[in-house]
TrEMBL record, chain A:
One of its GO terms (cellular component) is mitochondrial intermembrane space. Coiled coil: none annotated. It comes from the Eukaryota. This is PRELI-like family-domain-containing protein. Residues 1-178 form the PRELI/MSF1 domain.
From TrEMBL, chain B:
Belongs to the TRIAP1/MDM35 family. This is Mitochondrial distribution/morphology family 35/apoptosis. The keyword Disulfide bond applies. It comes from Aspergillus bertholletiae. One of its GO terms (biological process) is phospholipid translocation. The lineage of its organism: Eukaryota, Fungi, Dikarya, Ascomycota, Pezizomycotina.
Length: 190, 80
């Protein structure tokens, strides 16, 4: 098993980040183009805790190293199952993802957490991401290592692009939200 | 908004996503967790989506993934 983890801070409130997170993969994000579709499968609010639980299906389309395709077959389209929990009281978003495609070869378990950043909790948000990647194919350890290494590398590239793309989404969200508010204020005044 | 895996569901998905985002930012985050403004749109979107997931065989992959997910629910659905 290999572990990839990264942490960063966004200069936006937790409310802004957790809202924009729902459209992380919209056209404003021109970096994460490998994500081609995001579908919501179920959504419920827990009546006791108020926690919002959402299941989503993420569809990715990306070039896979040729040697991986020839070893394991399959196509370049892959699916990820994501389940997320929003706790509005403690201000915490937790997202757990697992791969549906190639699950007999590789297991990827990713956890992402968004929480207010302790130093400036009202205007900055901490992002923590951890992925555990395990090659399941029987046989040579050498091949397993190679599969895990290639996966971690791809994961870290996507994570970097994901951060950059999300910054763009946050910026656009703030701008659009501000314009909306202005329009509403104008309407109220006229 | 992002696209649906099924192009024929894009319109209804877009309507639902817009409704949800408005509910999330204007009601849910402000403490009104019980309203169900978008239920009707979601049910239409799901009808469209489920048909395609079945056709593509993704529904059975999802069933398998859900079986392994009880731990996450136990851990994250309670108050932290």
């Amino acid at each position: 098993m290999k572990v990839f983890s990264s942490t960063c801070t966004f200069d936006y409130s937790w409310e802004e980040v957790s809202t924009a997170n729902w459209r992380k993969y919209c056209p404003w994000n021109d970096k994460s183009t490998h994500v081609v579709a995001v579908d919501t499968l179920s959504r419920t609010v827990d009546s006791e805790t108020g926690i919002l639980r959402t299941e989503r299906l993420i569809t990715c389309d990306q070039s896979v190293p040729q040697w991986v395709l020839s070893l394991f077959g399959g196509s370049a389209t892959s699916h990820v199952y994501e389940i997320s929990y929003v706790d509005p009281k403690s201000k915490k978003v937790t997202m757990c993802s697992t791969n549906l495609t190639w699950s007999n070869v590789l297991n990827v378990q990713e956890t992402v957490i968004y929480q207010p950043f302790s130093a400036k909790p009202n205007c900055t948000t901490n992002f923590h991401q951890e992925a555990k990647i395990t090659a399941l194919c029987g046989g040579w350890q050498k091949i397993k290592n190679k599969v895990e290494e290639a996966s971690v590398e791809r994961f870290s590239q996507n994570a970097k692009r994901g951060r950059e793309g999300f910054e763009a989404v946050l910026e656009m969200s703030r701008r659009v939200f501000g314009e909306q508010r202005e329009r509403e204020n104008d309407r109220l005044q006229s | 908004m992002s696209a649906s895996i099924a192009p024929e569901c894009n319109d209804i998905k877009d309507k639902y996503d817009t409704c949800f985002l408005k509910w999330y930012s204007e009601k849910y985050l402000r403490g009104n967790t019980t309203s169900n403004d978008c239920d009707e749109l979601f049910s239409k979107y799901k009808t469209c989506l489920n048909r395609v997931l079945k056709e593509k065989g993704i529904d059975s992959m999802l069933e398998d993934a859900r079986k392994g997910n009880h731990e996450n629910d136990t851990e994250h659905l309670r108050r932290s």
